[in-house]
Design brief:
By secondary structure, this protein is α/β, with parallel strands linked by helices. It has 19 helices and 28 strands. The chain is about 30% helix and about 25% strand. The radius of gyration is 30 Å and the shape is globular. The structure holds NADP nicotinamide-adenine-dinucleotide phosphate.
Length: about 675
């Protein structure tokens, strides 16, 4: 009997009622599972996420949530073989599954590590610097990100059932938002297996992840302005969902990742015989065949100098002809099947539209020889290379996405024409350029950059380590303008911020500083008996301040420092040369000398809880210091972040003043302090 897939709702696994859709093996065409979410109470699922998952996540800091993600990634990694075993029936080869499974797990690891290293051990995030809003400094502004109080609803495409879910889940959980995930029906069994592993691990708090295997029913009817939707799929579905009255009425943020007619441009310099020409052929062939071309980032439009068209067609055809197509379980197979027979039907229909404007130069959309499987029962399709002789006149070739191993070659006459063609995609996830000429790269990046989410400039210098045209990286943004949906995912901590509300706070420095656990200039300074360097991390109070004695900076000091360091820049050494200088009244102290003197003034030398100075942030020299000036320093604890079981990072707000108490330099000093 065929198994019915389960949804995970309100803390239990439940089967759907009523009629079910069939999910079939892409390789054999056999029905593998039934998919239905009939009978699920969507409003109750949202309530469960809001009342259980949200509060549990929001009670944690970024570091605690990052720890959850790390454990989750470790757990999935330990059980990934289960997922690999199931993935073949999506049509994916082992290499394709690696992108989906380990690419997804790697994304969770990346967010875990970024959360620990780049975010504070708090549930909120300060955004930017304090804005001075008043003459006397008693009223200031500060932006901060705080968690949204809703649910992240994610609707995923069929092509990467695991990566697609995890790349949305990781930043949402790190931001403190519970998730309700819905996989595409055709590959839902693989997403279900991944969710089972996550739920069984008991790592996430109850309500942090729920799963709808089937239709979302009336879910959208219950969304509020605190919720958000992350959608990956076709432009048609996206447009329908985005226009839902509830989304419009409640201004529910809707992040869409949809169709994309990505291009790759061969630079005019990359002629046959250059390393770049070979790289181009390899990259285009790989993009066409990896995951049988079912990658949102795959190269669909191949833009080449008209003089190189024939050479590119010949080289690409030769390479594509070597691609062994077959049962993805076979080690010899380089390209598996499309995800479903429906998908192949769609791709064939799209190829027909493209062929009205482009001729077929490689492959046969209707028949194929396949290793170890039935080419008709399974959703196999040959790589298809089309060539449009007059691409400027084309419409479909820039608009119809055949979501399979299909690409159209388009000759261009000059670089401006290449840019025009690139931008005819009307917004793509990624565009690449293969060139060794930086002028070509500059021209294309500024000519086509605004139409692309990401641009790769590939040449011999970076090829060996390049992650390639088609790989979205967790560190870099994924999403493109216009046709690609206008969404933005990933991009490191930016992705976490997308799941939070940025709020502008106004008030007194003391009030806002206390709320955000960060000392702001103008708030009271706390003086304790001993020097702050004598206090362990836990005993240091935010706002705890040390004010130094004064030290006169002499001309001898400046000269000594200049000769000692070798920094004999004329502004410190040559009275004549500095005459008429726009900033300096005469010879002035080195900025670095001031920093060194400041350290000498504030440091408490005896061995103690301060383990190391680990850097400066936001250093500014604001006023020149002439010889004879007596400087003094204020050192205040701005905020603190634990790092591990032994030490934590202390951020100190430092100001150096002259004798008239004018600020001559400001910076933030970072130290590691024993707990
Ligand atoms: P699709 O038909 O639009 O389906 C996408 C998702 O939407 C599926 O989970 C689908 O569920 C769901 N869905 C469909 N109708 C819905 C409705 N009325 N209410 C709620 N959910 C609904 O797209 P697809 O054909 O599966 O995916 C291929 C497309 O995805 C391609 O165009 C590709 O470019 C795009 N894609 C984009 C990216 C990106 O990052 N930009 C990545 C991958 C794919 P069911 O399967 O249950 O219908």
């Amino acid at each position: 009997m065929v198994r019915a897939l389960m949804s995970y709702a309100e803390g239990s696994w439940v089967g759907g009622q009523g009629s079910a859709a069939e999910a079939r093996s892409a390789v054999s065409g056999e029905v593998l599972a039934l998919v239905s979410a009939g009978g699920l109470d969507m409003a109750a699922m949202l309530r469960h996420a809001r009342s259980k998952g949200g509060p549990a996540l929001r009670a944690m800091t970024f570091h605690q949530r990052a720890e959850l993600l790390k454990r989750l990634a470790q757990h999935l990694n330990a059980h990934k073989d289960v997922l690999y075993g199931l993935s073949y029936d999506t049509g994916a080869t082992r290499a394709d599954s690696w992108i989906d499974i380990e690419g997804g797990i790697g994304t969770v690891f990346t967010f875990a590590s970024k959360g620990k290293r780049e975010l504070p051990n708090e549930p909120f995030l300060i955004d930017g610097e304090v804005e001075a809003l008043s003459k006397n400094g008693t009223f200031i502004g500060q932006h901060a990100y705080i968690p949204r109080e809703g649910v992240m609803v994610q609707i995923n495409a069929f092509n990467f059932p695991i990566w697609g879910m995890l790349e949305k889940l990781a930043p949402a959980i790190l931001a403190g938002m519970p998730v309700i995930a819905k996989p595409a029906t055709s590959t839902a069994w693989l997403a279900e297996a991944a969710v089972k592993l996550i739920i069984e691990s008991n790592i996430l708090p109850e309500g942090a992840l729920q799963f709808i295997c089937g239709s979302t029913g009336d879910l959208f009817e219950h969304l509020t302005g605190q919720d958000m939707v992350g959608f990956t799929g076709s432009a048609a579905t996206s447009a329908k969902l985005q226009a839902h009255p509830r989304i419009l009425a409640n201004a529910v943020p809707f992040v869409a990742e949809r169709d994309s007619l990505n291009c790759s441009i061969l630079g005019p310099d990359a002629k046959p015989g250059t390393p770049e020409f070979d790289l181009y052929i390899k990259e285009v062939a790989r993009e066409m065949t990896t995951k049988a071309g079912q990658k949102c980032t795959a190269i669909r439009r191949i833009l080449v100098p008209a003089t190189q068209s024939d050479a590119v067609i010949a080289a690409l055809s030769e390479r594509l002809a070597k691609t062994r197509i077959g049962d993805p379980r076979l080690e010899t197979t380089r390209m598996g099947a499309l995800a479903s027979l429906d998908q192949r039907r769609d791709v064939r229909a799209q190829i027909d539209k493209l062929r009205k404007e482009a001729e077929l130069v490689f492959g046969n959309p209707d028949s194929i020889s396949v290793d170890g499987a039935d080419g008709e029962k399974g959703a196999f399709l040959s790589p298809i290379l089309l060539a449009a002789r007059n691409p400027l006149a084309g419409e479909a070739i820039h608009a119809v996405e055949a979501f399979g191993p299909v690409a159209t070659l388009m000759p261009y006459r000059d670089l401006d024409e290449a840019i025009t063609l690139a931008n005819r995609g009307e917004g793509s996830l990624v565009g690449s350029l293969v060139t060794h000429d930086a002028e070509v790269a500059r021209h294309v990046v500024f000519g086509a950059g605004a139409f692309h989410g990401r641009m790769l400039v590939l040449d011999r210098d970076c090829a060996a380590e390049s992650t390639g045209h088609g790989s979205p990286m967790p560190h870099l943004i994924h999403g493109g303008p216009g046709r690609a949906g206008g969404g933005e995912e990933l991009g490191g901590i930016r992705a976490v911020k997308h799941h939070m509300r940025r709020i502008a706070l106004q008030g007194s420095p003391a009030m806002i500083g206390t709320v955000l656990k960060s000392w702001i200039k103008g708030a009271p300074e706390i003086t304790k008996e001993e020097h702050p360097f004598r206090y362990v991390f836990g005993d240091l109070t935010i706002g705890q301040t040390f004010r130094s004695k004064r030290r006169v900076v002499t001309l001898e000091d400046i000269e000594h420092f200049a000769h000692f360091t070798g920094d004999t820049f004329y502004a410190h050494m040559d009275e004549e040369a500095v005459k008429g200088h726009p900033f300096f009244p005469g010879r002035v102290a080195h900025g670095y000398l001031l920093l060194a003197f400041a350290a000498g003034l504030f440091v408490e030398p005896a061995k103690g809880p301060v383990l190391a100075n680990y850097g400066l942030d936001n250093l500014r020299f604001l006023k020149p210091v002439e010889p004879g000036t007596a400087i003094h320093v204020r050192l205040s604890v701005k905020n603190k972040a634990p790092r591990n079981a032994e030490y934590g990072e202390v951020r100190w707000d430092v100001e150096i003043y002259d004798d008239a108490d004018n600020t001559v330099a400001t910076y933030q000093l970072l130290t590691m302090n024993a707990l």
